[in-house]
Structures are given as C-alpha cells and as structure tokens.
Amino acid sequence: MSDRAEMRGPTARQRRTTISSNGGKYHHGGGDKPSPCSGKKKTEEASRHVDNNGKADKEKVQQPSDNQRKPTTSHLDEISEGLSCHVLQESLLSSASGYSNYRGILNWCVVMLVLSNARLFLENIIKYGILVDPIQVVSLFLKNPYSWPAACLIIVSNVFILAALYIERRLAVGTVSETTGLILHIFNLASMLVFPSAIVLTVNSITPVGGILSLGVYTVLFLKLYSYQDTNRWCREIRQAKAKKLTRSYSCPSVAQSNGLAVHTNVSYPGNLTHRDMYYFVFAPTLCYQLNFPRSLRVRKRFLIRRLFEMLFFMQLLVGLIQQWMVPTIQNSMKPFQEMDFSRMVERLLKLAVPNHLIWLIFFYWFFHSSMNFVAELLQFGDREFYRDWWNSETVTYFWANWNIPVHKWCLRHFYKPMLRRGVNKLLAQTAVFMVSAFFHEYLVSVPLKMFRLWAFMGMMAQVPLAWFVGRFLNGIYGNAAVWISLIIGQPVAVLMYVHDYYVLHYGSST
Question: Is residue 162 classed as helix, strand or coil in its secondary structure?
Fold first, then answer.
C-alpha cells in the first residue's frame, strides 16, 4: 500500500460517522458527500422511525450517559430533606393541635348508636311483642267518646282572649284609666291560670293527657296576653310622649306596602286593636307581641308539605316509642322503687334514660322545627328562629337560653330586663326567671296528675346551683358533657318519680 493510501486511512477513519437507527448502522466517508441514494435512504428511515414511535429519537442522541450525568440542585434538595423527617407538632386528638374535623368519628358514633338501639328494640320486641296500638291513644284524651271536656275548655279560652282585646280598646280611647285597666288585666290573667286548673281538678272525665294539653294551651295564652298588654302599654306611653306631634295617619293603618308578591299592611297604635290582629298573634309561633311582625313573601308549598309529612311521621314515631319502649320500662321500674333497692333503681334509671332521651330529641324536632315552621309558613310569619345551637352548650345557662327561643325572648323582654331596670341584682333576676319557669313546669304536671310532689319545681331550681358549678369549674367539652349528662339523667329521674307517685296514689300499690 502506498504512503498516500496509508495517510488517507486514519483520516478517513477519524471523519467516519455512524448513525444508529433501530439497530441498523449506516457509514459514509468523511471527505466525500453522501450520494443521493444514501441520503434518500436515510430520510426514509428517519421518517419511518417518526411514524412508528411518534417522535424522533434525537433526545437519545443528545442526552449524556448515566456515568456522565451530574447531581442537580433539586436532587440535592431531595437528599437534604431526607435527612430530617420530624417536625414540632401535636397529636390530632390533643386539644393543642387545633384539629377539629371529627366527621368520621361522628359517623362512627351514629352507626354505633343505631346498632345499639336496634339491638334494644329487637330485644324489646322479643320480650314484650308488639305493643303499639294507635286506637289506644284516643283513650288517653277521651274517657267518653261523646264528652270532650279538654276540647271544650280550650274553646272557652276565647273569652279571655276577647276580654284582653276589649280592655285594650277601652284603654286606647281613654274610657278606662291605666290603673283600672291594669287591675282588669291582672284579674283576666290570673283567671287564665286558676279557672282551667280548677276545671281539671274537679272534672273527673278529663284525662291526664287531656289536662296537660288544655293547661299547655292556657299557659301559652297567658304568656301571649301578658306580652300583648305590656306592648300596648308601651305604645300608649310613646303616644303620650309624642302627643303634640300625633297625627291621624299615625294612629290609623297606613297605606299598604307592596313587595311584588305579597301586600302587608303596617299599622300603628291603636290601629292594631282588631280581631284579625289579635287572632293572628294568638296562632303565630311566638310569645312576644309586636304591632308589625316580619312577614315572608309567599307560602312555599313544597316546604309546607315536607313539614306536614314530618309532623305526621314523627307523631306516629313518638306514640310507637312510648307504647313499645317507655311504658314497659316504667312498669318494670316500679318494684325497685317500692322496695328501695338502690342498685336496681340505678339500673332501671339508666335503662329508661335511653328511650326517654331519644323521645325528647324527637319531640324537640317535631315541635320546634316541623310544627312551628308549618304554622309559620301558613301564616307567612317571617321570624323562624325557634332554637339555636343548644347542642353546643358549654354552660347550663346557654342551654336554657337557646333551646327554646320563644320562651327565652319572653323572659328576657317582659321579666328579666324590667327587673334589671328596677335595680334588681343580675343573679337575683336570673334566679327569679328560673323560679317562674319552675312554677309553670310544676303547674303543667301536678295539676293534670292531680297530685303535688314538686319534683319538677325542684328539678328546675336545681339548675341554678348546677349552672353556677358548671360555669365556674367546667369549660369547653367538659362543660358540654355536663350539660348532656344533666339532660340524659335528669329527665328520667323526674319521670320515674311522678309515675311512681301516680301509681301509688291512684292504684294503692306499684305495678
């Protein structure tokens, strides 16, 4: 081989290029241009590679090998993070962690509650059989199907309603003095408490359930009419203070205000002293009177039907639970109470606590949500705050202020604040409010049962020291737990006391 050939050999080898594609190799010399055929062939192979894989393999050519790859900054950061995996933090169940999403635990509690109550219900069915009898409920209201004394007593309440209206009309025109009007109102209100209780105690045909129903109606009317006379008296005081500026348009109904869907008339005193206004207030789901109530725009039919369905369903459920669950448990509790067997008494008490509390919760929903919303929707009554979040109560006073808003508003407006304005101590005023509530609780139980044991009165008055203890020594979840325990345990104690005394008084022995 010549020297020229030897010199060209290494140079050619150095300039030689290799292109790899799908395992094939193509070579061409460095000094010469590739032939058209070879270029065409390479173009076809490249296009075929793109078609098969979706993209060219240029990245494979440009990327360095693993041995030549250097650690990047992000990779170093990952290594640094891996060196420490602990931070300063609290356990989720600790109060200091700030964690509050316990929805899963709440669902678990609901499932366990349903399963445990299902077991108790099944055990009750196996032991006693089916005790639910809707026809038997009628006998709780009527001893004689042709005599309806409780219903007649409720109808007679219209006399007291109209008496309050006519007294206010005489006061508005000045034919009766303020002192005489006050005396007439006091006599009318006192008669509303004395007259029905006397009828219930003397008429033997009125059953305990019928007596509780009629006295409950009279108690509600008593609170309503007290608010009615109080509010109208305030209006007269304002009118006298503005006597020089009083015009005819102020004392008569004003022009109707239209909102597009409903027209409601705003009235000023004494334009409110009408039968229509009085009976609207009587049926409205509130105890506090005002001249112009907030009104909703229209009656929502779907909402009304849902509330009606809930009323009917929960009423049947309450009757069934009382007949099937409460009555047998109470009957089995009489003997331990008669023998003063304390261990058995506690066992009966705890067994009664579950159905009693469940019935109380269902009654709360039936009355304060379903029934009161149904009446409010029919009357287009706008204020639907019948309860607040009493289940989150951390103090006893918070519970009593939020579970029954109509009564709370009445006590605050017509009893508690007037006492504070007269200079009464705040603690004494709160105690007086509990005393009034205790009186009506005892009134609604002792009179229909025709016995006076003061268990309800003492139970309500016991809330005063309990409220002080819980508010002073317990807070947060511990205060909430104390409120729940008082509700779950306190009510069955009162129920057992009254039922036991009723059976002993009327039947001579506990059964």
Answer: helix
Residue type, 157: S
Cβ atoms of residues 308 and 372 within 8 Å: no
| Catalytic machinery residues | 441
Residue 302 half-sphere exposure toward CB, CA atoms < 13 A? 0
DSSP labels, 227-251: HHHHHHHHHHHHHHHTGGG--HHHH
Beta strands in 124-202 (DSSP E): none
Please count the CA atoms within 13 angstroms of the CA of 49 that sit on its side-chain side: 15
CA 429 to chain centre: 28
Residue 18 phi/psi, 5-degree rounding, is: -120, 125
Residue 405: which residues within 8 A CB-CB, separation 6 or more?
385, 386, 387, 388
Per-residue tokens: 405: 């808003």
Say how far apart CA 314 and CA 359 lie, in whole Å. Answer: 10
Residue 149: the pLDDT is: 87
pLDDT at 206: 87
Q: How far apart are CA 290 and CA 288, in angstroms?
A: 7
Question: Whole-angstrom Cα distance, residue 397 to residue 405?
Answer: 13
Residues 6+ apart with CB under 8 A from 501: 451, 453
Q: Got the DSSP string for 403-465?
A: S-HHHHHHHIIIIIHHHHHTT--HHHHHHHHHHHHHHHHHHHHHHHHT----HHHHHHHTHHH
Q: Shortest CA distance to 218 belongs to which of 150, 148, 133?
A: 150
Residue the block writes with tokens 């440009």: 62
What is the pTM (predicted TM-score) of this model?
Answer: 0.75
Low-confidence ranges of the chain (pLDDT < 50): 1-67, 246-263, 509-511
pLDDT at 128: 75
- Rounded CA gap, 237 and 488, in Å? 46
Helices 208-241 and 178-202: crossing angle in degrees, nearest 10, is 180
The Cα 288–Cα 404 span in angstroms is: 13
Rounded Cα gap, residues 373 and 410, in angstroms: 19
Beta-bridged to residue 381, according to DSSP, are: 295
If you count DSSP H runs as helices and E runs as strands, how many of each does the chain have, helices first?
Answer: 22, 4
How many CB atoms sit inside 10 A of residue 259's CB? 10
* Dist. CA 81–CA 354, nearest whole Å: 54
CA dist 38 → 16, 51, 58 (Å) = 15, 20, 20
